[in-house]
Write a sequence for this structure.
């Protein structure tokens, strides 16, 4: 059940300049899955709306959530959140959205998918949700290839990701790993992906959608599940602020629009027009 | 108060209000477009506790709404330009009304359209549905045709009100726009044309520029401002209308607390709606209803009607 609750900050540290790693204690963690998100409120009442932040990791005891986020600007909501210290209270709403739903992605029998090549793609601040995805996959005995794309050598979460998958790195300036973006790494893979789960900037998601379609045309079936981002108000499907265009008429809206906050943020790339 | 008998308790408080023959268990409603059809907030709010659920605007056919971004946060408020996306009246009757009927609350359906005929089609379609009232949105600032055009001109407002009254089986609330020079003229025009009640305010047209992208924050360029930032404007307009007309008023605009709601009630609103604050605190409606009761107990007010329009 969705709730707005008070969580307690367990710890917070800056991973690299402007990227913060926040652990909060909350019972909502019991219901959290990869690809879902929560809304984080600030104490500044002039900033009304909750900030949508993805679940980066659920603690092993299912009693805490990890959020890894970028501070967008001085005095922004994320800047205020970054000033929280251990023991502080923070209001959150969640758990929101549909994440990477394994039964949708793999079908009912996960075992049959054991030998499919599962590739996780995270670009920039889209990397954090890939950690929980890798963690849940590994709990099901699937070891994904995780490809992360950074701007430069300011990297975060690499060590955590290595625990659950094979890590490959791209950097735009070529300072680490493959020069370019995650798709440049995908192009070099020995075995093509069968299943892609991705989060990152829109150009990257478009490239993934195009890649999956092109591969399908060549006769190699690739399912790509991508996490979309949009400005949100309610986060619970009521305001219709956060829509994405859909290929077919949406079951809820009866137009070609779907609500990212409730029907997503993760969608089958085939079903959305981006 | 030492004497036990004089102490008010919840059981003898009267929080009921009546508008055009429809009695609401309390004056707290949801503002159209901020609460879906109740479904989306059912995890948070016991819908049985609300005076009424006012649903998202519905048209004769599905509307896709505006491009994104559709919402933007502003200081103490937010802009929206949803563009009245809705699934159309057929789906609404099949899905949303049956859902709401499961609860002991009143149903007010907000109606939108591009032409008078569009509105009438929806009103006719609702004639035999179990809904308690209709709220006619002639004040949405975010769609190009219809809607606000009817709410910014006395003759157009008068005309559409008459047409709808001639068709509607349920009492009709005309929802007024604050984007006018003198809102009392609109209130009087609606009253003279036969409206059973008025609701106000809809959002105030605003704009936000994204200085980093050097463009508008909303794809629609302009949007409707709502939330606590607009409350003083809304209270003023409710007060002015209460002085100008005799039909009941449903007041809204930035209500976050029971104290806010009481300002509207004392200014002359018979009922109040909670809008954008649902997004900020999904429990707002219940907290407002509880807070009004607490205020009545604390101040020895037995009947909420003692408070309606008590500030002249
Ligand atoms: C489903 C989802 C998951 C996300 N997960 C993460 C994450 O794990 N880590 C991370 O760093 N960021 C994430 N984001 C982006 C994050 O929500 C924004 O960076 C954040 O809201 C910015 O808030 P602010 O106060 O710093 O910015 P401001 O510009 O001050 O915010 C003003 C308003 O705009 C909204 N807003 C601004 N930028 C965005 C954006 N890019 N997307 C959506 N709303 C925005 C804010 O929520 C707020 O309502 C996610 C976004 C979505 C939609
Ligand atoms: C996201 C959003 C959608 C809205 N949609 C509608 C609508 O469909 N019909 C309508 O009459 N008013 C609509 N409104 C206006 C509200 O019902 C209300 O009049 C206004 O927001 C002021 O109240 P508030 O400050 O409490 O939000 C909408 C407001 C918001 C914020
Ligand atoms: S944010 Fe309100 S519907 Fe998605």
């Amino acid at each position: 059940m969705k709730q707005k609750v008070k969580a307690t900050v367990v710890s917070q540290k800056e991973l690299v300049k402007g990227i913060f790693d926040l652990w909060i204690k909350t019972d909502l963690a019991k219901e959290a899955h990869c690809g879902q998100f929560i809304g984080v409120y600030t104490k500044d009442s002039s900033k009304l709306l909750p900030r949508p932040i993805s679940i980066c990791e659920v603690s092993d005891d299912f009693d805490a959530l990890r959020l890894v986020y970028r501070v967008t600007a001085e005095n922004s909501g994320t800047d205020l959140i970054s000033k929280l210290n251990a023991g502080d209270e923070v209001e959150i709403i969640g758990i929101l959205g549909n994440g990477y739903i394994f039964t949708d992605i793999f079908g009912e029998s996960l075992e049959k998918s054991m030998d499919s090549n599962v590739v996780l793609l995270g670009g920039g601040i889209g990397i954090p949700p890939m950690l929980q995805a890798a963690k849940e996959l590994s709990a099901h005995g699937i070891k994904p290839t995780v490809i992360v794309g950074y701007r430069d050598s300011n990297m975060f979460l690499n060590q955590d990701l290595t625990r659950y998958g094979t890590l490959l790195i791209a950097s735009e300036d070529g300072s680490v790993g493959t020069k370019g973006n995650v798709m440049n790494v995908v192009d070099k893979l020995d075995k093509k992906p069968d299943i892609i789960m991705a989060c990152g900037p829109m150009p990257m998601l478009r490239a993934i959608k195009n890649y999956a379609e092109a591969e399908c045309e060549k006769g190699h079936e690739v399912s790509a599940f991508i996490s979309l981002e949009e400005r949100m108000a309610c986060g619970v499907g009521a305001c219709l602020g956060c829509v994405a265009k859909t290929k077919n008429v949406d079951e809820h809206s009866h137009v070609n629009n779907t609500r990212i906050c409730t029907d997503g943020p993760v969608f089958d790339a085939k079903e959305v027009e981006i | 108060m030492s004497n036990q008998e004089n102490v008010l308790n919840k059981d003898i408080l009267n929080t009921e209000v009546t508008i055009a023959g429809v009695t609401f268990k309390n004056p707290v409603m949801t503002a159209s477009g901020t609460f879906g059809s109740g479904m989306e907030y059912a995890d948070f709010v016991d819908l049985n506790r609300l005076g009424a659920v006012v649903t998202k605007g519905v048209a004769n056919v599905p509307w896709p709404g505006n491009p994104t971004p559709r919402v933007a946060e502003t200081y103490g408020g937010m802009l929206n330009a949803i563009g009245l996306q809705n699934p159309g009246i057929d789906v609404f009757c099949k899905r949303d009304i049956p859902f709401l009927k499961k609860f002991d609350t009143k149903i007010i359906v907000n109606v939108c359209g591009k032409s008078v005929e569009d509105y009438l089609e929806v009103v006719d379609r609702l004639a035999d549905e179990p809904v308690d009232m209709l709220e006619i949105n002639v004040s949405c600032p975010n769609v190009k045709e219809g809607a606000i055009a009817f709410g910014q001109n006395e003759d157009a407002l008068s005309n559409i009100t008459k047409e709808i009254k001639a068709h509607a089986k349920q009492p009709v609330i005309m929802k007024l726009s604050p984007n006018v020079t003198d809102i009392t003229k609109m209130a009087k025009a609606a009253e003279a044309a036969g409206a059973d009640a008025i609701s106000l305010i809809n959002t105030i047209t605003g704009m936000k520029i994204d200085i980093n992208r050097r463009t508008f924050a909303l794809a629609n360029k302009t949007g409707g401002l709502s939330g606590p930032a607009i409350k003083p404007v809304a209270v003023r307009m409710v007060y002015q209308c209460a002085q100008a007309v005799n039909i009941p008023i449903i007041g809204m605009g930035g209500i976050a607390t029971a104290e806010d709601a009481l300002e509207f009630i004392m200014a002359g609103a018979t009922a109040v709606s909670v809008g954008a604050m649902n997004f900020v605190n999904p429990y707002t409606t219940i907290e407002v209803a509880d807070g009004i009761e607490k205020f009545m107990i604390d101040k020895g007010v037995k009947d909420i009607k003692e408070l309606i329009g008590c500030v002249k």
